[in-house]
Amino acid sequence: MTPWTGPTLEVHADHLRTPDQTLLPFELKWLRLDSLLSCEQALREMQVRGAPLIGAVAAFGLAFGLREGKALPVACERLAATRPTAVNLRWALDEVSRALSQAKGELSRAEGELSTFASAPGSAAGSNAFSRAWQRACEIAADDARINAAIGHHGLALLRERMALRQTLGRPVAPGAPLQLLTHCNAGRLATVDHGTALAPVYAAHAAGIPVHVWVDETRPRNQGASLTAWELMQAGVPCTVVADNAGGWLMQQGRVDAVIVGCDRVAANGDVVNKIGTLLKALAAREAGLPFWVACPTPTLDFTLPEGALIPIEMRDARELTHARVRLPDGAVVQAELMDAAVSALNPAFDLTPARLVDALITEHGAVPASQAGLLGLNSRSSLSQ
Fold first, then answer.
1. For residue 214, what are the β-bridge partners?
2. Does the active-site annotation cover 265?
3. pTM for this structure?
4. 124-158 pLDDT, tens digit each
């Protein structure tokens, strides 16, 4: 079978195709998304996940809702409720809504009319609304791929610097030894329309002939590292090793990590980063070990409306994700297995907050900047994405 190397989101004339990420790594099955409900369900059930991909699918979901005659606020609210932490989702919905409000003719009505102009399926207004929303969604998807490619380019420069620097760090490194990177969760192609965020520099380095090896946190409780990151790295031919979530600090102490690079779900104006639960521990361990901790951050993931990360809502997910695990039996059957007594209570926060002071750089499509300077990227960064 031909290895899968993206893109993650295929845009067709009237529908989307994307891998069902809940079935990986055991089965690569493509979802067909062609309605508000199908997009809503895919987002809620995490068949589609990763902040940039969430935003793109939400944008198309809003277009589908307009095609079906749903009122704009209703469709927006349904999609926004699926994943409250990732700011890309709300950003994408706002972008589509703004495009509609700026359009001519029927789309330039007063706010009250705009909220219901798509209520008649097949009407001229509804058709125009769908066309404009679909166009903006396509732009958002294309922008994401371009943004991530740029993050790969800028991140590659950091990797080259780190590769050269390690010969001066006081420990012997054999010539040709791979650059050792540690990552958490999945911020690769599967989390985006294409290229990935945290893994974009890794793929760029691999394509440039720079030897890299990735330590992949398993990322309990949903195991996105073991089931998604390791899978897509293997598909791309990038050497990797899965480790327990708590092994990262030990690897750093042993001198077996050159840098830590992760993605993000939302970054506040002061540079505080919210990412998959467990990210904070990696940042603390990296600081103790004197290693760089980098966050790949597309500017749509920056939330300039929040001055600090403490204001970012943390999604609490079903405890069953923690108490059960999806496993494949020797006969090939895939089942949900209990990991603990059913009477034991469990708490399942999906994200944690890493303060800006622990982040050495945000790698954006505009270049790498100190996290403390996130606000300097300015509100215009977002409006310039489609220019």
1. 181, 240
2. yes
3. 0.90
4. 555 789 999 999 999 999 999 999 999 999 999 99
